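sorry for the late reply, my laptop died twice this morning and i had to redo everyting from scratch. anyway the thing you sent over, i finally got around to it. pasting the sequence first so we're on the same page, its 429 residues, then the predicted structure underneath. double check i copied it right bc i was rushing
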Amino acid sequence: MDYSTLRFETRQIHAGLDKNDATGARGTAIYPTAAYRFRTCDHAAGLFELSEPGNIYTRLQNPTTSAYEERIAALYGGVGAMAVSSGMAGILIVATALASAGDNIVASPYLYGGTYNQFRHTLRRLGIEVRVAASESPADFNSLIDGKTRFIFAETMGNPTCAVPDLEGLAAVAHAAGIPFVADNTFGAGGYLCNPFEWGADIVVDSATKWINGHGNAMGGIIVDAGSFPWNNGRFPQIDGPSEGYHGLNLYEAFGPAAFIVKCRVDGQRDLGTCPSPFDSYLMMLGLETLSLRVRHQVDATRALAEYLKDHPKVKNVSYVGFSTHPSHEAAAKYFRYGASGVLNVELKGDTDTTVKFVEALQLAAHMTMIGDSITVVTHPASTTHKQLSDADLAAAGVTPTLLRISLGLEAVEDIIADFEQAFTAAGL
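ok and here's the structure:
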């Protein structure tokens, strides 16, 4: 079936289902198997040399996970997708697929703390330089690109600042340089709020632990390939050239537009072993069925909470892209459905101690390092997600001692507001 003719809400339910399953099962089966029987030695050889499709080992693929990947690819309109064990694993596979020792990446200054650390430390130890742009202006990215740059990287909405870059502008800069634009679309909610492919991005990574799953019960990441980048432009011989691991096979010649996602699987997943459990893939499939419904509620609830907090006497500042005062308001209106997401930031009056007391006094909202959950989550980035950053890096990322990142869940927002009120009182603010 051509899912591209269907709306997102229909694709999130139907894509990836096997309508010809002999059992007539309504849902996707869970295949808890590590390995698969080969029909013959020739069959096995064909699988291993990539001349024949099929299952070899669950580290590479699994029928449950394949159904999940098909659904994600359909939601984004990509040529293919690959599920991994976490969002960080997805970023690492993309980085090592495209860059080697001596190469560089140009990245946004507004990144999730874990990504920042991976770029600044782990990739550096691998000999891959990460150049951080002075701002998210396409011109600042462009100024750092040279002949060794292999891709540019940005989040469609920064974590935790909620900064939204000029996606079209970044794509134009990347393509003028002959390199892909890689977008972390975790805040884009599986393509429902934002689909970077519509704005020129070539590769998407997503922490599926967040909105895709939506219930805090499984870890996962996803890589999606738009199938639009010309890998035969001479800059990527690891894709359009003889493969050392497959007897000189040219992935681009063999797989065409899907060459990159194939490389991620047959090299990255093979060697790094970041496969998800089939049970977790099943949970992701369940989460996807209600994705749009959950996100619409969360966006509405976030707007209501932001309105409550903006004039609150105990709040110093509210940073919400839905307000015209936010620096990324216009960009969010352009790139995000509803012009917002399910996350906002607030700075409380007081100091670190009173902020901690407020967080610890909450009874409904959970203190966790999480977003996109069915439970409302309040995070203090300075003591959690960005704790490992230096004071200078914290300042550059916009993380202050009293900053709180709030991700709205599925509760009645009136109850969350009441929870905040009692926490303000308990904290002595």
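The chain has a mean pLDDT of 94.
thats about all i looked at so far, will dig more tmrw
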